[in-house]
Amino acid sequence: MTLSMEQIEIFTIPSPCKGICEVNNRGYCKGCFRSREERFCWNQMTEHQKRIVVDLCQRRKKRIMAKKNAQQLDNSAEPQDKQDDLFKFDI
Length: 91
Description:
This protein is mainly α and 91 residues long. It has 2 helices and no strands. Helices cover 40% and strands 0% of the residues. It comes from Pseudoalteromonas luteoviolacea (strain 2ta16). InterPro entries: DUF1289.
């Protein structure tokens, strides 16, 4: 026999929806970082389940933002191709 100990939530957890409602290549919403199943089942979830989803979303956002920042740093570290100045003459 296993007992499930769910943490009691005092306040209702609001939907993390940001109104963007577009999915990325991994299937997560670009606004709230929920999966399709998490978005569709939100109203049927317990407050404890909602807390777990919100925590997962925060981790996903942090991971995605860190990856974006790393890519931006990599791009800025690469030497940029400079076009020769057409009006600069060596005389």
